[in-house]
Amino acid sequence: MEKKINKWDIEYTVYGIAMDPIYIGTGGYTIGRVDNTIVRDPITKLPKIPGSSLAGTWRYYTVLELLSKIKDRQPDMNTVKSIEKPTVVEKIKEWIEKNSNEWNSLTGWYSFNGNVVAKITCAGQDNTPQEELSNSPYTEDKEGKTGHCGHCIVCKGFGFSKKDFSWQGMIYFSDLHILFFPVFTLYGTKWITTEEVLKCAGLFKKLGDNASDQSQSSGQQFFRVLIQNEEKEAQAEKSEKEYINLGWMYLPCTRESFSIDLEKVKFENFELKPENVVIVPEKLFSQIVNSNLEVRTSVSINPITGAAKEGALFTSEAIPRGTIFYGDLRIFDKSAFAELESKAGELPSSCALIEALSESKHFFETLGIGGMTTRGFGRLKLELKRKETEDDKNTSIQSTEDSKTVSGGEQR
Amino acid sequence: MKWYRLIFSQAQPIHIGSFIWGVVNETAAFIPGWTMWGALTNTYLRFNKFKDIEKSKEFFTKITNFYPAKACSKNEDKNQILSSLKCLFPKYEKGEFGFVEVPISEFDEDNNNFVSLDEFRFEFVDVIVSTAVEPVNRKAKDESLHEFEFILPKSKIDNCSLYWIGLIGFEDKEEYNEDLLKRYFSTLFVGGDIKYGYGKLELFDVQEIKKEEDLNSWNIKQDGRANIALESPLKQYVKFSGQECFEGEIKLIAEFDFSKNISEVSRASYYINIGSKIVSNMQSKNGDYNYLGNYFLYKGMLKP
Hints:
The structure holds two protein chains of two kinds.
Chain A: H1 2-8, E1 9-18, H2 51-70, H3 77-82, H4 88-98, H5 100-103, H6 153-158, E2 160-161, E3 166-167, E4 171-173, E5 177-185, E6 188-193, H7 195-200, E7 204-205, H8 209-217, E8 222-225, H9 230-238, E9 243-246, E10 249-256, E11 259-260, E12 266-267, E13 270-271, E14 277-279, H10 282-291, E15 294-301, E16 308-318, E17 324-332, H11 341-344, H12 350-360, E18 380-386, H13 390-406
Parallel strand pairs in A: 6-14, 8-14
Antiparallel strand pairs in A: 1-17, 1-18, 2-3, 4-17, 5-6, 5-17, 7-11, 8-10, 9-10, 12-13, 15-16
Helix pairs in contact in A: 2-12
Chain B: E1 2-10, E2 17-21, E3 24-27, H1 33-47, H2 53-56, E4 67-71, H3 78-84, E5 86-93, E6 96-103, E7 114-116, H4 117-124, E8 125-130, E9 146-151, E10 161-170, H5 178-184, E11 187-189, E12 200-209, H6 212-216, E13 237-239, E14 244-247, E15 250-257, E16 264-272, E17 277-281, E18 296-298, E19 301-303
Parallel strand pairs in B: 3-9, 13-19
Antiparallel strand pairs in B: 1-10, 1-12, 2-3, 4-5, 4-10, 5-6, 6-7, 8-9, 11-12, 13-16, 14-17, 15-16, 18-19
């Protein structure tokens, strides 16, 4: 039965690295000295990228990617409308049958049937939610805007809601939390994190004494910053003391060996090295992150005089370049809804959805996420890593056991 | 019937749709039985590939409301957490709705700390402001500003963790047991915006309830009928017949069909709110409440 559970959801971890400072505003609240504050976790006070921002932006980029490949093959909306079939699903099928040469040369997620009626307005908020699904691809509101088509892979994957039919979507995003945060130190830029964060991200494993020796010999060393109590302070007096600055904070530290699975956190040319990781206590993490955010003071310029505009000084904060994030992404298999085909049309497979996300994520590296993206903010590089299921683990345990047997118990 | 006490740990913020005030989507401070029923049924159906939908809708209807419970144990040991768990059960005090903190092993709700709804919201509820974005020019869409409230998994004051506690009852069939609950509901998504990092609950503990008094404190008997003690704060909504004399509030509860964009009301009735007390039966001369004995638990409500 366990296997059934594991086959149910397809789970991925999303890793991201900020290529620019990232600004996702809270909507203009002024707290303290900063005018434009960013979204934070209400308990830890750590900045984050909300799941809704990630989902909304990704939806938009998936539409862009899709249209870039299929727009020359799509029929005019009136052509689809004029096909004499009772439902849009059947009209789409009919059109594809008649234009199979053109449409069937598409591969993968681009060739999903409903994409025939996909439009740029399948991203963003629906402008015509009051329309019935059968009218949705063609109908315009008073301002001439059209809404979600309700048939393409984007609408099926991310969800839509029409007068007669609501579809929740198949892709679930979590917030992107900070995994490693870059701070300037006297040893150069180091990436700080905590044990708790590493455990949550499934990257942490403390080594036993023997393993520790092994890892030291292999050079896997990095800083571990501790606030020392009096007893430890006294012990440290006797031995050689080491300190590290994390921004303006100057803290005593010790070097310890840990095993962190940094293999998972790789972004093309960027690779985090163990010696550049600093583990700080949980209670200090938020303090260090928040005092090392990028804070910019800006002023509007009077276009006639070229001088600063009176009363136009403002301050914004942002998550700095180089911050590494992690979050979850799951895809629910809703193939059981096939019986709704007459209404919703066919459903995309999980593979097609992951393909769509993978092939559109490059837009985050150019168009970015959040605010002020036209002013050097927001670019983000993303990586999707499939999470290991219980099945996978069992298989790997099995294979390890097999290999042990083959090698007479010696671990390879 | 077999009854089980379920305790879920909260893994993500959750939003339980309550009211919409202008641009603010308010969250309720507890999980109504029908919301939890929806989450359980949806999860169960997904495992079963949405077979026998109509039949499956009946499996989890004998379910109570789920109330928050605070655990401040720093120890990660399950038993330690369970023993430190303080349930927040609904109660009115001096006309104000709130919760009373009751240790999990105790049923005396009188001598415990009262936490007003405002205090609970101050400690556990936060809000995010958000807008939709125009897909063509990527600016914020006009009139799309909205605020979204959610219950945090941890206290803002003392970092205590939040759990959710409630009961579920099954007919005496072999397949409906502890294993079924553990197998299907180890992870559950409840409430709104679950696609955006909200609503994840993880099953922390399941225990079969064998003592009648444990059930009575949740206003139910072994067979699922109502058991309402005089002057005791209600943990389930009670359908208002017009005959009860009570202290508290009355609520109009509507059951919606959410399958369409504009949800439709399928049923609506007046109910005596949770936390209220029934003080006497105007119709009954000898003060018994036999007619309430014909009320059954149904998704957090007691009704005929």
